[in-house]
From TrEMBL:
Gene Ontology molecular function terms on file: ATP binding; ATP hydrolysis activity
Keyword Membrane: no
Summary of the function given for this chain in its UniProt record: Part of the ABC transporter complex HmuTUV involved in hemin import. Responsible for energy coupling to the transport system.
Source organism phylogeny: Bacteria, Pseudomonadati, Pseudomonadota, Alphaproteobacteria, Rhodospirillales
PROSITE patterns membership: ABC_TRANSPORTER_1 (PS00211), ABC_TRANSPORTER_2 (PS50893)
Protein name: Iron complex transport system ATP-binding protein
């Protein structure tokens, strides 16, 4: 079942074409990796998919309905977005920042209830930041902040999670934890996850599907083994990347 769909997205910035007819369908129960070189337009596309930037042309639907820009409360309950920038501007505690993920579920005159508190607690445990709950979020390290912001997105309990470089700035243990968490979210709970990744090993290991963005267009969309082949990788990255295997797992070595 398709949860989020982008159709023929066009975007120009400062007179330069960034996205040139991008279409993409995100299905329930899958982790989809979005890869492409720096400046390919991945974050711009993610912001459009999150309803935070209108495209010049084309549209996005969530559950078959047009996604408002900015998202309304009903859309915000179903769709969470982890931005590439891990900025936290206000000196709030970690628990408070994560609880912001529950706002779409609360009305203006409704205090948080057990379901909200449970969701916040579970999200902090899943993103391994429960031990930081009383820390002021602005004092955290980069990797700690990244996990807190991921927890905020998880607390929403979204049908669709858009995560821009979710494993960036994380140590190897937390990279594995976060990627397996995204997989559980998709395979266990039936959510759709779109993750921008630069790590091809992670894309091959954790993603059900990989979409390649290059030159403003979708250059490939399919299973990792089919998509991550030397010819395409050479074209998009301008460097030789050789696929191999260690212990039955795909690895990519840059020459
Ligand atoms: N507000 C803006 N005004 C002008 N150009 C912009 C603006 N925002 C982004 N761009 C340009 O659009 C292009 C796409 O940027 P975007 O951040 O979407 O790329 P990306 O694929 O996410 O890159 P990276 O892998 O480096 O994060 C870049 O060339 C960037 O310089």
């Amino acid at each position: 079942m398709t949860l989020l769909q982008a159709h023929d997205i066009h975007l120009a910035l400062d007179g330069r074409t960034i996205l040139d007819g991008v279409s993409l369908a995100l299905r329930a129960g899958e982790v989809c990796g979005l890869i492409g070189p720096n400046g390919a337009g991945k974050s711009s596309l993610m912001r459009i998919l999150a309803g935070l930037r209108p495209p010049d042309r084309g549209g996005v639907t969530l559950g078959g309905q047009p996604l408002p820009c900015p998202p309304d409360r009903a859309s915000a309950r179903r769709l969470a977005y982890l931005a590439q920038e891990r900025d936290i501007h206000w000196p709030l505690t970690v628990a408070h920042v994560v609880a912001l993920g529950r706002l779409p579920h609360q009305g203006p005159f409704r205090a948080d209830g057990d379901a909200d508190r449970d969701a916040v607690e579970r999200a902090m445990v899943d993103a391994d930041c429960a031990h930081l709950r009383d820390r002021v979020a602005t004092t955290l390290s980069g990797g700690e902040r990244a996990r807190v912001l991921l927890a905020r997105a998880l607390a929403t309990a979204p049908d669709v999670l858009l995560a821009d470089e979710p494993a960036a700035s994380l140590d190897p243990l937390h990279q594995v934890q976060v990627m397996s968490l995204l997989r559980r979210l998709a395979h266990g709970k039936g959510s759709a996850v779109l993750a921008v990744l630069h790590d091809l090993n992670a894309a091959a290991q954790w993603c059900d599907r990989v979409v390649v963005l290059y030159d403003g267009r979708v250059a490939a969309d399919g299973a990792a083994q089919a998509v991550l082949e030397p010819g395409l990788l050479r074209t998009i990255y301008g460097v030789d990347i050789i696929p191999g295997s260690v212990g039955g797992r795909p690895v990519f070595v840059t020459r």
